[in-house]
Amino acid sequence: MKVYNFSAGPAMLPQEVMEQAQDEFCNFHDCGCGIMELTHRGKEFDGVINAAEQNVRDLLDLSDDYAVCFIQGGASMQFAMVPMNLMLPGGLAEYADTGTWSAKAMKEAKRFGEVVTIASSKATNYDHIPNIRHWKPTPGSSYLHITSNNTIFGTQYHDFPPAVPEVPMIADMSSDIMSRPLDMKQFGMIYAGAQKNLGPSGVTLVIIRKDLAARTPESVPTMLRYSTYIDNGSMFNTPPTFAIYMLKLVTDWLKNLGGLARIEQINNSKSEALYELIDKGDFYSSPVKPDNRSKMNVVFRLPSEELEAKFVKQAKEAGMIGLKGHRSVGGIRASIYNAMPLAGVETLVDFMLEFERNNG
Questions:
Q1: Number of domains the chain is built from
Q2: Which CATH number characterizes residue 202's domain?
Q3: Is 172 a catalytic site residue?
Q4: Choosing from 97, 176, 196, 253, which is the catalytic residue?
């Protein structure tokens, strides 16, 4: 039975990528060793990390003003690294509070300076993205931080706040990186844990404007400085070689598919199919305002928690795993990242229709 993984992360990887990794696992490019066994200082891995960086640059059309870094510690470490490196002396930073992960980022930032909440949807249980037209950035802010997609609450920015001169925008894009075209000139930095759209867990992609890295105070430890990764090609110490190799394969797959414009079309088709079903009747319901619904994490409720538990159990028996909503909010969550094929969403839609017929 084919199993579709709707988990929020670690998530599905493209079938072609998994098969290629399987083929090369014990003998990478006929060198007699697997990629995890090879030194990161050798020509084989050097080719992998350089190709991974070039794929990122090609897909996002990055100029030389930006550095591409591969860092460990997940997005959670970036919650601290961002203010450690980029908070101006005696300054403040502005954060949009749109969910659990933005709140965690704010908590870390408060250790290093003043944090101002520029906008928040907490009062309505994070059911929307605050209207960006109402934001009033503070002149002289160190940066503006947003979380582009909120996995737990199922919200997503479909437009970004306009760039403000001298206030770089920083975005946690862990759950929608490379799911659509992006104008990097709007951002001073973006970061993303790989385990949703880029590969397995273990590596975080950081793209940062090089001039921002010069802000870092001398007191910041070596391994927590962006300049350390920039100056050493992400190899000051041993990097997560297998995770970077997988990221390279996933970005190869994305390029071969047709790039970000093509994957956006596919992602739109998947999310539209689910939201159309959710909205057509009273059995399923979405807690998210329609204009802010995520195309990566589709959250919905059933008439009772008992039916939700039954739904998750029977879906698993039918080959669909990871559909239980986050423990903090309950309900159902279908994470349909880039690697989730349209066939997986069609299977879920068919199951939802049958489940409603039997339990509605």
A1: 2
A2: 3.40.640.10
A3: yes
A4: 196
The secondary structure of 196-230 as a DSSP string is: TTTSSTT-EEEEEEHHHHTT--TTS-GGG-HHHHH
For residue 75, tell me if it sits in a domain. Answer: yes
Catalytic residue among 23, 64, 65, 101: 101
Global model pTM greater than 0.90 = yes
Place of tokens 């909440």: 117
What is the spatial distance between Cα 148 and Cα 158, in angstroms, rounded to a whole number? Answer: 8
89 CB-side CA count, 13 A:
6
Q: Which of 256, 283, 317 is the last residue of a domain?
A: 256
CA gap 237, 320 in Å, rounded? 39
- 255 carries an active-site annotation: no
DSSP-assigned letter for residue 235: -
* pLDDT tens profile 75-104: 999 999 999 999 999 889 999 999 999 999
State the first-to-last Cα distance of the chain, in angstroms, to the nearest integer.
Answer: 27
In terms of domains, do 80 and 201 share one?
yes
> Which domain, by its residues, includes 346?
260-359
Encoding tokens for residue 304? 């009772």
- Could you read off the pLDDT of 216-266 as tens digits, one per residue? 999 999 999 999 999 999 999 999 999 999 999 999 999 999 999 999 999
In a domain, 21, yes or no: yes
Alpha-carbon distance of 312 to 338, in angstroms, equals 22
Is the same domain home to 320 and 216?
Answer: no
Annotated catalytic residue within 64, 107, 136, 172: 172
